[in-house]
Amino acid sequence: MHTAYYKSPIGTIEVKGNSKEIHSIYFIEEDISTTLEVTSGEIKKCIQQLDEYFLGNRKEFELNLSPNGTEFQGKVWTELLKVPFGKTRSYLEQSKKLGDVKAIRAVASANGKNPISIIIPCHRIVGSDGSLTGYAGGVWRKKWLLEHENGNKQQSLF
């Protein structure tokens, strides 16, 4: 397993994987001052594609993903990959797509355990009223990612 750190516009991202697959992508709060040399082919490819995404030049990722989770979580994460760039879907809509509207809490829980942020776009899932509910990387990052994908420029009031 190899680890690399990517400095994104919204914080440091830890990428773990091997030469063939990406296993996890998490926002971390620590400021990593040292840069690890990226030796893994798939991690190099991931870093390049994250660069393109944050520059606004990539809407789809082409990576081999290997998230670790239960069979149900895997189904939820696979369904997340079907949410188009720049679009959102509610937890209820996500549950319906999976064939069980009563599974809404389980779907929300599986979204929260998604180990591959951004690439498996759990940030595109919102409350039924459109509210930005939970995001492991912080709701402010979820808001930024959705605005980024919608082409809205992040503006400061100050």
Task: Note down, in words, how this protein is organized.
This protein is α+β, with helices and mostly antiparallel strands and 158 residues long. It is 33% helix and 16% strand. The protein has helices at 41-54, 71-80, 91-97, 104-112, 139-150, and strands at residues 2-8, 11-17, 22-28, 89-90, 125-126. A three-stranded antiparallel β-sheet has the order 1-2-3, with helices on one face. Strand 2 and strand 3 (22-28) form a beta hairpin. Helix 3 (91-97) packs across helix 4. It is globular, with a radius of gyration of 16 Å. The relative contact order is 0.15. Residues 154-158 have low confidence and may be disordered.
The radius of gyration computed from the alpha-carbon positions, rounded to a whole number of angstroms, is 16 Å
Strand content: 15-25%
- Are there runs of 5+ residues with pLDDT below 50, and where? 154-158
* Total number of beta strands: 5
Q: How widely separated are the two ends?
A: 43 Å
